[in-house]
Amino acid sequence: MQFKINPKSPSKTFLRVIPVFEDAIAGLAEKLGKPAPAPVLFSGKKDSAYCYDSEGQLILLLGLGQNPDYKTIETAFRRILSKNGTLAENGVSIDLPDNFTATQAEAALVGFVLGTYSIGFYKSAKATEFDGLKVEIRSVQEKAKVLVDRAEKIAAAKIEAFRLVDLPPNKITPEYLADWAKKLAKKSKLSTTVFDSKRAKSEGLEAFLAVGRGSSKEPKFIILEYRHPKAKHHIGLVGKGVTFDTGGLNVKTQGMHEMKSDMGGAAAVLATTQLVSDLQLAINLTAIVPSVENAIDKDAYLPSEVIGSHAGLSIEVVDTDAEGRLILADGLSYLAKKYKIDQVIDLATLTGSAIGTFGYECAALFSNDESLSHGLQEAGKAVGEKSWPLPLWDSYAKEMDSEIADIKNYNGKPFAGAITAAKFLQAFTHGHPSWAHLDIAGVSFTDSEFAKTKTGTAYGVGLLLRYIERMLE
Length: 473
Description:
One of its GO terms (molecular function) is aminopeptidase activity. By secondary structure, the chain is of the alpha/beta class. The protein has 14 helices and 20 strands. The strands form four sheets. Strands 7, 8, 9, 10, 11, 14, 15, 16 and 18 form a nine-stranded mixed beta sheet that branches. Strands 1-6-5-2-4-3 form a six-stranded mixed beta sheet, covered by helices on one side. A three-stranded mixed beta sheet has the order 12-13-17. Helix 4 (144-166) runs antiparallel to helix 8 (264-279), helix 7 (206-212) runs antiparallel to helix 9 (324-338) and helix 11 packs across helix 14. It is elongated. The two termini are 32 Å apart.
């Protein structure tokens, strides 16, 4: 995609895109330099659009409503190429409204680039390619070029998160994620360490290794470190990286086809790390992705086994389908013990209970730090990645008491599943005073207007970026 900012002679052969606020519809005729379409055809309402030919030029009007939020603008602009790609074959000219804020302009440009994404990776008939697409941006923003560069980096990170979730599990394996991290380190200012089974054993990552025992695919414990010379804060991220989840010997009885998405937390963490590096944010970041495949064979871990952990706690395995919390336990423990982290945030497609509570609207948020919890909520709200807090009361921890071990991985009861899972994780944070857990089971892989099947959403990338940048203000 080739961007040109404020061309002196806009191309008449390009598709001209004009976003319109509902309360600014009266000024559309002046913008066009000719009569506007009748209100019955286009009113500027949210999610409306009208495309027509004007003296040989195609014009696409996008209705944004009266007070559009970030997600509304991003989605409206994503539709341009995702749904009208053939109209843009000659190029696209985008008129950003004069009263657009920098944040609104970012949302528009990010959404526009996201429109190039398609999940048809293995189709014989390929989707429209946009690599060489010429795009004119007409804007009064003083730093329009900076905005475009930033938006491209944000969109690239989100698309990478889409890909990592949407590609099939015979492609996205623990080894693939490890190689992905190594490639990122080569092209960015990052260092990467990957533990294989032997190294993980020597590090005491026994819970992590137990989950991967039933798979022929080697588990990988991935560590990415980004350091900035002017950093005043050190953030730690942990992402659940189960590349496919059969449920283990407690095999899933439904929904297994979608379990390639069980590494949505890993995708968000890896893509965020890429983005922080691309934007060269003045922060230190350590990201850990414990990556395994939870499969079934003669070596698979058993219900009722007692396994060890990096934290030194023994764990009674009640359910092998409660595997994500086991690998996260070792990831959190390793991070808290080995690094001096100011704040720890983990993201995981962890429980159906979170979906039962919030549906597909928002993530379940748990934190022992009110400031961190509020900051994540506000950051997510600003970019359309909502979360809502649930309690971490000590009384819930009793549900995870084991008769035979220090703790059990599942309480076996049909209530408070997301909360008891969070309490399990908290036991492995070594009492870190500022920790947050985002259960993203309902928001990282969902139905949308951009595909006929569930697809990745990149939930967490925008939220974490906004949170980190607000911390730096």
